[in-house]
Design a protein that fits this description.
Number of strands: 49
Shape: globular
Strand content: 35-45%
Distance between the termini: 10 Å
Helix content: under 10%
Oligomer: single chain
Length: 1000
């Protein structure tokens, strides 16, 4: 059985009603309702974004032992101040332990990510299409849609070493069973917590004094019979030496099979039938009265087929089956190939027909969800060396393995094949001769080569040693917290079954020599080239091993983080309206990374010992030889020193005027890479002399320093053969180097939030309402610039600093352009959050409680400006291809008594668009299409409504059985021109989960 949820403060302990919500939702506003709950009542979630009563701390939801709580103030993440009766002005959502359990997810990340204010978070259903990003399977949060790099994620108020070179942690590596609550600060918190807290903070609080044994065993599966899930969790805690020595430990293993790629064409995994190869086709005509772009289902590329297609010239339209036999390809739209050099098909659109033979389409092969395997261990030992003073050490190990399939095949359009190639069927060779040609254009999905698989292995080792507690000084109690943390993260990425582009090009160029089929190039033959038959689906094993060696691309990354931190808080003086509370402290942090990649991707010169990757003259010595997954070598480090001060000043405490306080903080930070920057905040709360009504507001200056990737990115080199040089009005050969930029400066943000809340008025106890308006403006946003823009900005003298990034008339070496990030862009967003809840005890005379809770976020605008001349800022609010829908809602209704609970949950977001820049028009009535306002015939993406249900049954006082069904109606995702958008839409369908929890 779950215990009552209680709210504790320095002045005492107040029982608060809390609901057993099956979902984070309870995301309760910020405080418990003021009503008392009988000790036998089931646990309930506390409303979180509402004002606290004078005796309560902001947004505290605790499921901890009463003895511990009576000794310590609880610090909620919106502030560093630990003082009874203090209410921070920053809206904070709290997800309690009961809420996490009720949502019954195999990964706590999924529970938290359902909050409406979290927009654009990643996870195992995101980045599954990627080979090279290094972020496959990475679970990280994004608040306000501004990206995971602008959301600070903490564990017990402490930073976590990044699981990616961008610096974001992987939530899957966190110890999860001992998480007591999660605080989500919806607004900037850089002044209190430092860099990256631009969108807000997500703080996981663990139960450091858990006593007993508890566990959880859970399984799950989709209605399609895939993504089988298994989760086993166990935690134990014990106190020794008269309750002075506290030991806790936990371990968990989780496996989710994921949902792999489907077949070529449009058939998804498990028989899902919602994929329609929706494509935004560019007609290429701007001013004929019809839209430039048209959105169509079942689009068929005219540039390749599953086992090969001749795409231009007199033989255009001849395709090959798996056995290599030629046949006439069935173009959609009743298309007829022009059979000339253009490769056009009459009756079709540029590049695409509709319907016809779709068997060669590759997008259905993308994984809908990465598989993930988690192994987590955590331990903590704390010793109370004095009353209310503790010294402790903790260690956690986490390993997360994921795998995904980016796409079907390894598509290669626009190949030139020789008619004399001995693998070309005789009928086609005869047709070549009759047409008087010696070569033809060719495209293939390369279905015969199989599908690429990407495997990641992240391992994290993290140790913390600290001391914290309370001291009496000058008649006042002072809280202190000092710790040292070291974390190391290893990330291994391995790619299987992927071709080396130049070897592929050599292998498909076959000839007959001395009666044998061989590669044309003598150099390639001398280095092991085996001829590859790409006409059909029967390549030789020797050819496959030549173009796709067993040792594929790899990347080996090591990141370290060292932190030394000290914070102190207390109330040194009593003033006219209450005690003045302050907090101050400092922190030193060092971040380092190094990455090593295979020589075929990174370049031979970077790896003298090639090992299983022998030098080959047909490959490019500088790297970039793989079809995808060309990882690079690199390293970098920086250090940070910072100090902060925060104060809470009570200014009113009157029956006629109410209670009010002003809260402010300032932080100075010195980066070894970019110098000194200041962050600050000022805000306040006012409990009006109206029963349960509060006004709150805060404005802040927040910062995000450039991360290791932006500063020291591993260089990537590509060739631009016909780059236009505006200085000399000619085309030149240029080497493009994509590199980091050590001259980057921190991004600067201005956050403002203002709101009103009503909590548990005496005329309707159990009611909580809150409304908060927010605006967030970020300037000097770090973003990359295209090579042509870098040169033009210098040529036009618009951005002189770009002039040092290139040399188009280099006399001492090749011409080059260094493509790197600059502080040019900006983001401007605003909207509001709404939360409402009501708790009804003994509804209709029934035993137990009924709770209704609704949360919503409305994004009024989300404008991104590249900062480049001639560009128009892009507003993506309401773009359902992205992360910021117009409205996003979460609603939960629960009934619970001493024996069982039932839950109904609704998740919903509104209709949207493919992009707000488009002008929708009908044929015959369209204005001229422009680059900034292109015309389109369909710009609608429907929203989605998902219904989830769940429940529990108490088998004994210690054992509870539960079930959960997500997406009960099996709602399919909307048609989308980007395959689908897993950041918003459920791609898996109805999912069943069930399990048993126990606690002794």
């Amino acid at each position: 059985m779950l215990k009552d949820v209680s709210v504790y403060s320095k002045q005492g302990m107040l029982n608060a009603s809390a609901s057993f919500l099956a979902m984070i939702a309870c995301m309760a506003p910020a405080v418990a309702a003021a009503q008392e709950v009988a000790p036998s009542s089931p646990a309930a979630a506390v409303p979180a974004e509402a004002p606290a009563t004078p005796q309560q701390n902001e947004a505290t939801v605790e499921q901890a032992d009463a003895a511990e709580a009576s000794q310590r103030d609880i610090v909620v993440t919106g502030t560093r101040i630990a003082a009874g009766g203090f209410d921070a002005p920053t809206p904070t959502t709290v997800i309690g332990e009961a809420d996490i359990a009720a949502n019954a997810q195999p990964n706590i990340f999924t529970t938290i990510a359902q909050l409406p204010s979290l927009q654009g978070s990643s996870g195992t259903s995101v980045n599954t299409f990627s080979t090279s990003s290094g972020q496959q399977g990475l679970s990280s949060f994004s608040l306000r849609g501004v990206g995971a790099i602008r959301t600070l994620t903490l564990l017990d108020g402490q930073r976590i070493v990044g699981a990616n070179v961008t610096g974001v942690p992987d939530i899957s590596l966190f110890p999860q069973l001992l998480v007591r609550r999660v605080d989500v600060v919806n607004g900037g918190a850089s002044a209190s917590y430092g860099s990256d807290a631009v969108g807000g903070v997500v703080n996981f609080i663990t139960d450091t004094r858990f006593e007993g044994i508890k566990g959880n065993v859970q399984g799950g599966i989709t209605r399609y019979g895939d993504d089988e899930q298994g989760l086993v969790q166990l935690a134990a805690g014990k106190s020794f030496l008269d309750d002075r020595l506290h030991v806790v430990a936990s371990g968990e293993y989780s496996h989710e099979d994921g949902v792999g790629g489907g077949e070529f064409g449009t058939e998804l995994a498990g028989g899902r039938d919602w994929f329609r190869q929706t494509t935004m086709i560019n007609r290429g005509v701007l001013n004929d009265g019809s839209p430039q772009y048209i959105v169509r289902d079942f689009a068929q590329s005219i540039t390749f087929a599953k086992y090969g297609l001749i795409t231009a010239g007199p033989l255009q339209g001849i395709a090959f089956d798996q056995n290599g036999s030629p046949f006439q390809f069935q173009y959609g739209s009743n298309g007829v190939p022009a059979r000339d050099a253009s490769g056009a098909v009459s009756g079709c659109f540029p590049g695409f027909c509709l319907g016809g033979d779709l068997s060669g389409n590759v997008d259905a092969g993308r994984s809908l969800k990465s598989s993930i395997e988690r192994l987590i261990g955590y331990g903590r030992v704390g010793f109370d060396f004095a009353d209310k003073n503790e010294i402790y050490v903790s260690f956690n190990f986490g390993q997360v393995k994921t795998s995904n399939q980016p796409v079907n095949g390894q598509n290669r359009p626009n190949l030139t094949m020789q008619c004399e190639n001995p693998f070309v069927p005789g009928l086609v060779q005869a047709a070549c001769a009759a047409a008087g040609i010696t070569s033809f254009q060719y495209g293939t999905s390369n279905a015969a080569l199989g599908n690429t698989q990407v495997h990641t292995d992240r391992r994290q080792y993290r140790g913390v040693a600290g001391v914290k507690g309370e001291l009496s000084l000058a008649g006042s109690a002072w809280n202190y917290d000092a710790y040292y943390q070291h974390g190391t993260n290893y990330t291994d990425i391995d790619v299987d079954n992927i071709l080396l582009s130049n070897r592929f090009n050599q292998a498909i160029d076959a000839i007959t020599l001395d009666g044998a089929i061989v590669c044309r190039s003598a150099t390639a033959r001398a280095n092991g080239c085996q001829p590859l038959n790409i006409f059909g689906g029967n390549p030789s094993e020797a050819a496959l091993r030549y173009i796709m060696p067993e040792n594929g691309p790899y990347q080996r990354t090591r990141q370290t983080q060292d932190v030394v931190s000290l914070s102190v808080s207390g109330s040194p003086v009593d003033l006219w309206a209450g005690p003045l509370s302050i907090a101050f402290g400092g922190e030193y942090r060092h971040e380092f990374y190094t990455v090593r990649a295979d020589p075929y991707g990174a370049g031979f010169a970077a790896t003298p010992e090639n090992g299983d990757y022998p030098a080959d003259p047909v490959l490019i010595p500088g790297g970039n030889n793989w079809y995808a997954g060309n990882y690079k070598n690199g390293s970098g480090a920086y250090s940070v020193k910072e100090a902060f001060f925060e104060a809470n000043l009570p200014i009113l405490d009157s029956e006629s005027l109410g209670r009010a306080n002003i809260n402010g903080a300032v932080r100075v930070t010195d980066y070894t890479t970019s110098g000194t920057v200041w962050a600050w905040k000022v805000g306040g709360t006012w409990d009006l002399p109206v029963d349960g009504l509060r006004i709150r507001g805060v404005t802040s200056r927040d910062v995000r320093a450039p991360n290791l990737s932006e500063l020291f990115a591993a260089p990537v080199t590509t060739t631009l053969p016909n780059f236009f040089d505006p200085f000399n009005n000619t085309n030149v050969l240029v080497i493009q180097n994509t590199i980091g930029n050590t001259d980057l400066t921190p991004e600067l943000a201005r956050n403002t939030t203002a709101g009103i809340a009503l909590v548990s008025p005496s005329w309707l106890p159990g009611l909580s309402l809150s409304f908060d308006y927010y605006t967030l403006k970020i300037k000097d946003v770090i973003s990359s610039i295209a090579p042509a823009d870098i040169v033009q900005l210098c040529f036009q003298n618009v951005l002189p600093e770009t002039c040092s990034a290139f040399n188009l008339n280099n006399t001492s070496g090749p011409n080059f352009i260094n493509v790197q990030a600059f502080n040019l862009a900006s983001i401007d967003t605003d909207g509001f959050d709404i939360e409402a809840s009501y708790r009804w005890q003994r509804p209709l005379g029934l035993p137990g409680n009924f709770t209704v809770r609704v949360l919503a976020t409305h994004v009024r605008k989300f404008v991104t400006d590249t900062g480049l001349p001639g560009t128009i800022p892009n507003d993506t609010a309401g773009v359902n291809n992205g992360n910021t829908p117009d409205w996003k809602w979460l609603a939960v209704q629960t009934y619970e008594n001493d024996d069982f609970s039932l839950l109904v949950q609704e998740r919903w977001f509104t209709d949207g668009t493919f992009g707000n820049q488009y002008v929708v028009c009908e044929p015959g009535s369209c204005p001229a299409s422009t680059a900034t306002q292109p015309t389109i015939d369909d710009n609608f993406m429907p929203g989605a409504f998902y219904l989830d249900i769940g429940g529990t049954y108490n088998l004994t006082d210690q054992v509870t059985a539960y079930f959960k069904v997500d997406n009960l109606f099996d709602r399919d995702p909307a048609r989308s021109t980007i395959f689908s958008n897993p950041a918003l839409y459920d791609q898996l369908g109805r999912t069943y989960r069930a399990g048993v929890r126990f606690k002794f």
